[in-house]
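quick one: HAX bound model?
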Amino acid sequence: MSSLKEKLAQQIPGLREEIKALVKEYGDRVISEVTVKQAYGGMRGVKGMVCDTSVVEPDKGLIIRGIPILELTEKLPEEILFLLLTGDLPTEEELKSLQQDLSSRAEVPGYVWDVLAAMPKDSHPMAMLDTGILVMQRESVFAARYSEMAKTEYWDAALEDALNILGRITGLAAGVYRMRYEKGSRIPPEPSLDWGANYVHMLGLEETDETYSMMRLYLVLHSDHEGGNVSANTCHTVGSALSDAYYAVSAGLNGLAGPLHGLANQECLGFVLKVIERFGGVPTEKQLTDMCWELLNSGQVIPGYGHAVLRVVDPRFTAFHNFGKKHCADDDTFKTVDLLFQVAPKVLKEHGKAKNPWPNVDAGSGALLYHYGLKEFPYYTVLFSVSRAMGMLSQLIINRALGTAITRPKSVSTAWIKQQVGA
Ligand code: HAX
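yep, here:
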């Protein structure tokens, strides 16, 4: 048994007891109420689900298992996976065991490539990634064991699926990149490299310590963002029907592919490049301000700015911004992103609509990827997905361990609401 599985096997019975006792004693206490505005407004702020891997505080940002994300920027993504699942950072031995486990599961089956090769050449890389994950569903350990296993074993089968998906996802994602952008044949994984560095290797980017560090940082920062966002919530809902991890994660990632969610990084870099092209380089503050207004006046959003929960600068943006200032401060793309950080909040405040005028994670990531040679920005949400799969899968395993019920909120009709409020 791997040390991760061993640790979970020790923790899970206690967790189950804790939740059972909590619900038994306090099950009828009220923790939230819902207004008409919330019912029509994407349930914003309604507390109706539980996520123990991370929380997002409006004034602090992402906190993973009690540790603010800015204190985790030097960690490896594999360490974050261990932390998400167990609540503890791994010891050196535990880390090594997890890395070996992931590495032993890295081979992507040949039929996945056949399916992807049959897709139209202009398919979005996210459609290719999600298809690649979904087509592997036939290998689900959870689905195979379902009819014979006890409920108490669900988490174990879900963990097997999760590790298989995570072991393969970097190779799959790198293969999507090389296939979609005609970069030549796939590059096999290099087992001596850690998860993030290996991804750089398989993508075929220039392999330097700096590129490795940028990728590790990218994979750490995007790993989780509590449970209510579109991708996590979708993965949770699909998984709650006991659909296996392949179904649940590909569904969640389909949500990440939306421009108001993970696709914002593609949109943001697209905007930045358009600015640079129009002005033949880094614009002046006035030029960029005018372009932001142009966007808003044409009914579009400034991508990478605003957030459903956050009300401060996203610390993940700060981490990317710090990395950029250290390693590529003279790059035109980074300079424009930096200038946008000065301009966009002022414009959004004056515009007066967005509750949060500050940058989110998607405002800062693209410039770094672009600088390190990953220029095909429609691919960026795939990188986001590789990382976010860690959070979604960790949440799924914990839900399987706790026996979380099938999701089924009550919807009501407009007629019912009108009657209820006497409208
Ligand atoms: N530019 C222009 N208008 C914005 C805006 C922005 N960046 N952010 C919010 N607004 C507008 C909203 O469109 C909304 O307008 P309407 O009343 O006309 O519908 C109004 O301000 C109030 O919105 P809000 O309450 O502040 O924000 P929401 O919780 O409704 O939406 C979003 C949050 C992230 C979707 C929103 O801020 C947005 O569209 N941002 C740009 C896209 C983006 O960066 N998305 C990535 C978010 C992070 C993420 O999930 N990454 O994966």
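The first strand starts at residue 54 and ends at 57.
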